[in-house]
Amino acid sequence: MRIPRVFAALALLLAFASCKPAAKEAPAAEGCNLVTNIPGRTTFSLDGDWNYIVDVYETGYYDYRRNPVDWKYTYFQDKSFFADETKLVEYDFAAAPTLKVPGDWNSQKEKLYYYEGTVWYHRAFDFARKPGKRYFVYFGAANYEAIAGLNKQYLGMHVGGFTPFNFEVTDKLLDGENSLIVKVDNKRRLENVPTVNFDWWNYGGLTRSVCIVETPETFIRDYGVQLAKGSATSIKGFVQLDGPDAAGVDVTVSIPELSLTLATRTDVSGRATFEREAAPELWCPENPKLYDVLVSSASDSVRDRIGFRTIETRGSEILLNGKPVYLRGVSVHEEAPVYGAGRAFSDEHAITLLQWAKDMNCNMVRLAHYPHSEAMIRAAEEMGVMVWSEIPVYWTIEWKNPGTYANAENQLVENITRDRNRANIVIWSVANETPVGAEGRVEFLSRLIAKARSLDDTRLVSAAMETKYLDEAKTVMTVNDPDIVSQADLISFNQYVGWYNGGLERASQISWTFDVEKPVFISEFGGGALAGRHGPVDHRFTEEYQAELYRGNIEMLSKIPGLAGTTPWILKDFRSPKRMLYGVQDDYNRKGLVSDKGEKKQAYYVMRDWYGEIAKKNN
Ligand code: GCB
């Protein structure tokens, strides 16, 4: 039998690669110059059915880590890539089954329920290019690592499962038939962010929408239009042009309802900045006011809906628009509120989850533990729900690996770049429950905090930290992270009194104290219950136990001076392979206030009533 030349080359490369130890550094993202506000642009959707091939053994492109740009070593190409097609008859995208995009593969195909590895996606589409335009293929998210090629040419690679990325395809897109191939790999790796161990389902695939974005040759790539730090009367921002005529041109930002037109001029790098007095009606949960905004240059214009508000701290208070506010929140995973539907992927999913939170009298959600979709943020903004936005620096991370840091920072940058104009985002969180004392951790987190502030000086920055006892009797607790508390705007931490920390009796025995004056924010508390499971109050996993745990925690937490917000864990039961208690958990973390089937548990109503009282007091 003749071995096709491409296989021979692959075999040689594999032999060579296998002599070398695997690279320890996490691959950095490349080619991710984000085009922002996709909903405000001309786009062509590539959502729908994509053919796919499962590649368990990495047969298709095993050498990319050493030689990422060499797309020619890819096996699962368009058939037309090979001069003599007859040599490669052992795969055919056109005959392959399909997966829906957006959507994870685990919940679409039974065989892929537990799958972690590579899946090759293929989408053939017709296109008619317009002269003088540029084109980008834009991915809302791909978990975890994506490598894309269009019409036999390499586009680029992206690392990180929850932030958007795009590749310019102006010179690769064809009139007529096009072929887009994306290798998506969700294998967990020690050096990744998150690392190998986390408490949620590792949903793989093209989990968010894919589209082609059309822009003029010189176009508005990004812009910021928000209130200046600490001011309710000054709108400040920038416009970034991209293209041959980006330098030294006029740009305007107009807000017709305010009769405001801000005119400015770009510098040599295509960037223009502005700051102008204005008196917008302020965005808040009770009045989520958004203004139509038009950003324009000679060659391009982009529409947005933007809200204006201030968020700051004063002593132990959080001030929204200058007034103390209690953040009546709940933590949320990006999981569909439809039984078994996996990663949330539609506007309806976002609205249902947010409505459950609002019906519980929430004015805020903590979107854990990674950036959720832009649709979720925008729906929350329209519905008057504030957002804590987080990147997946979760539990143990390779703190000393420069590639891991670069990856985390890149996810933070992409998250802030995508969402910096959303008034409802009030907190950027850089980490969750990271182990105090781990070597390199403080440096890692300090750099992330500084980066967040350098990208956005108007919002609060924090992290979900850990706790400790102050006394031998284990009755006095505090946050356990002085190096991060000193840099963060909030004393925010997760605590599980009554669940991981003792039983129901514990809440009445514990008091809290803090040696810094900052707002205290409980980013997690709670316990598990299987909806419909009833029994004596001290029986774990009954609705009664969970409700009682909430009552006890509410009483305990209410005594904390400076308590400024709470986001109990969690709105809805969510899938996690760590949750193996058969008959009770069955692959679900059961700490939801609402079940995986949408049933509200007793504790949901306990929270609803407490938040209702707080809301009444504050009005
Ligand atoms: C935590 C984590 C969260 C887990 C939760 C739990 O502290 O931050 O991701 O799911 O505890 O249920 O144990």
Give your account of this protein's structure:
The protein is of the alpha+beta class. The protein is 17% helix and 29% strand. The protein has eight helices and 33 strands. The strands form eight sheets. Strands 25-24-23-22-21-31-30-28 form an eight-stranded parallel β-sheet. It has a six-stranded antiparallel β-sheet with strand order 3-2-4-9-6-7, with no helix packed on it. Strands 1-10-5-8 form a four-stranded antiparallel β-sheet, with no helix packed on it. The radius of gyration is 25 Å and the shape is globular. 48% of the residues are buried. Mean pLDDT is 92; it is low at 1-32. The structure holds (2S,3S,4S,5R)-3,4,5-trihydroxy-6-oxo-oxane-2-carboxylic acid. (2S,3S,4S,5R)-3,4,5-trihydroxy-6-oxo-oxane-2-carboxylic acid (GCB) is lined by residues 199, 369, 432-433, 494, 524, 569, 589, 591.
Percentage of residues assigned to helices: 10-25%
The assigned structural class equals alpha+beta
Q: pLDDT under 50 segments (min length 5)?
A: 1-32
The major β-sheet equals: 8 strands, parallel
Mean pLDDT: 92
Task: Give me a quick take on this structure.
With 619 residues, this protein is of the alpha+beta class. Residues 1-32 have low confidence and may be disordered. The structure holds (2S,3S,4S,5R)-3,4,5-trihydroxy-6-oxo-oxane-2-carboxylic acid (GCB).
SSE layout and pairing:
Layout: H1 5-19, E1 42-45, E2 48-55, E3 98-101, E4 118-127, E5 133-139, E6 145-150, E7 153-159, E8 165-168, E9 176-185, E10 210-216, E11 219-227, E12 234-242, E13 250-255, E14 260-265, E15 271-277, E16 291-297, E17 301-306, E18 311-314, E19 317-320, E20 323-324, E21 327-332, H2 347-359, E22 364-367, H3 374-383, E23 386-390, H4 402-419, E24 425-432, H5 441-455, E25 460-464, E26 467-469, E27 476-479, H6 482-485, E28 491-494, E29 511-512, E30 520-524, H7 543-558, E31 563-566, E32 574-575, E33 588-589, H8 602-618
Parallel strand pairs: 21-22, 21-31, 22-23, 23-24, 24-25, 27-29, 28-30, 30-31
Antiparallel strand pairs: 1-10, 2-3, 2-4, 4-9, 5-8, 5-10, 6-7, 6-9, 11-12, 12-15, 13-14, 13-16, 16-17, 18-19, 19-20, 26-27, 32-33
Helix pairs in contact: 2-3, 4-5, 7-8
The protein binds (2S,3S,4S,5R)-3,4,5-trihydroxy-6-oxo-oxane-2-carboxylic acid.
